[in-house]
Amino acid sequence: MKKYVDVILPLPLPKYFTYSLPDECAEEVEIGCRVIVPFGRKKFYTAIVRNVHYCAPTEYEVKEISALLDASPILLPTQFKFWEWLADYYLCTQGDVYKAALPSGLKLESETIVEYNPDFEADTPLSEREQRILDLLSVDSQQCVTKLEKESDMKNILTVIKSLLDKEAIFVKEELRRTYKPKTEARVRLAGSADEKRLHILFDILSRAPKQLALLMKYVECSGILGRETPKEVSKKELLQRAGVSPSILNGLVEKKIFEIYFHEVGRLKQQVKDVVELNALNEFQQRAHDEIIQSFQEKNVCLLYGVTSSGKTEVYIHLIEETIRQGKQVLYLLPEIALTTQITERLQRVFGSRLGIYHSKFPDAERVEIWRKQLGEKGYDIILGVRSSVFLPFRDLGLVIVDEEHENTYKQQDPAPRYHARNAAIVLAAMYGAKTLLGTATPSIETWQNATSGKYGFVQLKERYKEIQLPEIIPVDIKELHRKRRMVGQFSPLLIQYMKEALEQKEQVILFQNRRGFAPMVECRTCGWVPKCKNCDVSLTYHKGINQLTCHYCGYTYQLPKSCPACEGTELVNRGFGTEKIEDDIKVLFPEAAVARMDLDTTRTRAAYEKIIADFEQGKTDILIGTQMVSKGLDFDHVSIVGILNADTMLNYPDFRSYERAFQLMAQVAGRAGRKNKRGRVVLQTKSIEHPIIHQVIGNNYEEMVDGQLAERQMFHYPPYYRLVYVYLKNHNESLLDQMAAVMADKLRMVFGNRVLGPDKPPVARIQTLFIKKIVLKIEQNAPMGRARELLQRIQKEMLEDERYKSLIVYYDVDPM
To answer: How far apart (Å, rounded) are the C-alpha atoms in residues 585 and 580?
Structure first.
């Protein structure tokens, strides 16, 4: 009997495809293994086996798989169930989920670009085919798989690529080579021999250069070069610090050929075992919360821990994690932002050491593949700490999922599909394993609050800040009035400047929050009002002073700043608005003595950049930190006494039913960064709408009043949590055709869903990357069967695409949009 497999391809296709198995590997193929399959005219993809059977398909001619990549499955049965749920709930295909779930190194295809690793040294002889590929890559170090296949004249090249990838002879290029360099540190050693006689000669030579002599003496002391066979390694940084001299002194000794500098690699997947410390004891409030959570888990699968900022929620988590892994189960700890992982990693490593694994997108792909493979084995990590993509990792026996800062909108994936929400996905994933989910936050999302207060979730409160520090004092400042009286200094009120000055004098730190990156959100011609726009998207360009260019924040395109206005040839181009870059410039003028750092998307492109900004601020090397919402996320700094929110209005005036809730959360979270360990902090809240009710709710930290108002409003206008939203997006290059298609589709939807359909309408940004966009909103009652709604949506989409005129239409869905 001939065997067949159904496979999932990494393409947005709705169904499985069937291939036949060659006899030689028919016995070895299991569900969850990767196979290489031909698809389309000349393309090859890595597909995943979904099932193995004996019935041949009749509709199409069956092709044979080209190769089997895995001896054992790389996906566990529960993951398939999870993928099915995601594709079904978020209205996308399993191919979309597959693309999002696996690290690139596990999904090779014909378009994959491979790159030669110049540091590769072979341990064992390479096969003839492997050598041939490396020879081709040594001529041109980056090539796509299709081109290599053509030049080498080899069939089934992906298996060779895979074996070279496993040997680390090549890299798969996403943006890999840019981000992955081995971490090295500069070290110093004596050039030439190091006996006593030679040292005495060197001391004589340097007797007239006291600083160089002092540095040499310090090196002799640090390396213990006289008493040992092999001297101790000395890092350049440490040597300069201990000798208290400038790098130029060292360079002088290098020029005299007395010292030489070399680089030593320090590893990444940190293997060194730190001494693990005991858990901290919980205080009475934390202990009470901990016991209530355990209690609520006996009846309910999900529990909300609602604790004010700085109440010590992380300590409660640590105790729960410890109890879970003592029962031999695994824990998934989700965070909204990579910046947070660096801080929390330290705390968790102190307690759990090497039982903790970290997973996020700033890691090089090779490392992500390593973690994935480790999770499949019996010796997987007990705790995974990661951002939203960690929900895809394989778990053998998940016992607890913690979603920290569950209100954060970064948990929602925007593009590409699956547009999943990691908090909701994690709750479903936990349920599949029979595990419990704990949601923690100081400002719950309204949906979670509704679920907790209606009894669907457990609900535990932690109202005391750690060591009973008071919540920060929030001082509102009316900048509209100050602008009118011309009393503002740039973007800063006199009060904020005064407080910052006092804080700096007392060696305390300041955080300034501005939710826009770049230098100026807009450049405008003073004469005629012309504003530069992106040629691919419907947005004005942001000026970035650091690179002296205009950038589109939607497609990333950059433009030169024009010398004169193309519309009226006027030369007065002025900046409107202000981003973090501009704030940084202004602060350096106001406080030239202070050390200033900026944390936004532009300064944190790599993982090392993140860690450095945070570490410098923690160690007090930075006095003032300026940032976008990244600085609001649960970071914990001991010496911040002043937080400035420079303009609260930019968060409120946004066309979205969640803007009120989100503005409250952001301001409350930013405020929570002030005054932690030893004294009450101050927050200066600058706004032009001082009378707005939200300002008073933030000042009084009155979350419940904000929620009650919002819930009443949302019930009235049919918004979540009372209704489910599905946004239907339509895209096309031709605007008039798109308008026509959107109108037809909206009519078809109205025939089925009636007045639950709104639109079509233009979203706030109506063209991105040359595609025009229309949006239709669907509001479905909370208790309506979602499965039925999905069937209807997909049927209508199919009808649309089967129509000749609408072939070029792109349709996608955003379920539970943020």
So the answer is: 9
The reported pTM is 0.81
pLDDT value of residue 676? 56
Which residues lie below 8 Å from residue 368, measured CB to CB, with a gap of 6+? Answer: 103, 105, 359
Alpha-carbon distance values, 525 to 512, 520, 539, 576, 622 (Å): 29, 14, 16, 10, 37
Long-range pairs, 736-740, Cβ under 8 A, ≥24: 737/805, 737/808, 738/772, 738/774, 738/809, 739/774
β-pairing, 234-235 with 259-265? unpaired
Side by side, the strands of the sheet bearing 356-359 are 356-359, 383-386, 330-334, 398-404, 436-441, 302-307, 458-462
Backbone φ and ψ of 334, nearest 5°: -100, 140
pLDDT grade for 27, boundaries at 50, 70 and 90: confident
Quote the distance between the C-alpha of residue 460 and its chain's center.
28
- Give 275's DSSP letter: P
The mean pLDDT value for 549-566 works out to 91
Cβ atoms within 10 Å, residue 389: 18
Beta-bridge mates of residue 17? 7
The tokens for 602 are 């532009």
CA separation (Å) from 561 to 523, 550, 578? 9, 6, 17
Rounded alpha-carbon distances, angstroms, from residue 113 to 8, 147, 177, 383, 694: 22, 10, 11, 33, 51
Q: Secondary structure of the chain: what % helix, strand, coil (to 5)? A: 40, 20, 40
Cα Rg of the chain (Å, integer): 30
Least confident of 237-246, 606-615, 803-812: 606-615
Phi, psi of 660 (to 5 degrees): -65, -50
d(CA 560, CA 548) in angstroms, rounded, equals: 8
Average pLDDT of the residues of the chain: 88
Sheet with 549-551, side-by-side order of all strands: 542-544, 549-551, 558-559
Cβ(5)–Cβ(19) under 8 Å? yes
Per-residue tokens: 817: 């949009």
